[in-house]
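Entry 14. Structure prediction run on the chain below.
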Amino acid sequence: MTMLGAITKLVREYVDVDDDQLTRDTDPVRDLHLNSYDLMSIIGRLESDLGIEIGERDVRRLVTLGDLDDYIRSKLAA
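Output returned:
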């Protein structure tokens, strides 16, 4: 499973959407209407599952699922 696949699988636990609604350009807040609590829960699960830490300042810059995918892959490659 790709990193984006893992992210979208996790997002589906919070919102019932079709696969075609979850792309790299999807904004979870604007497009899926997730609230900040849901988004932070998703971030927390990713941190826990992957053994990484996503700083608060970084979270603010992660607007789309693609941004989150790129960020996580860069953290794992470091």
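The longest helix spans residues 36-50.
Filed with the rest of this week's runs.
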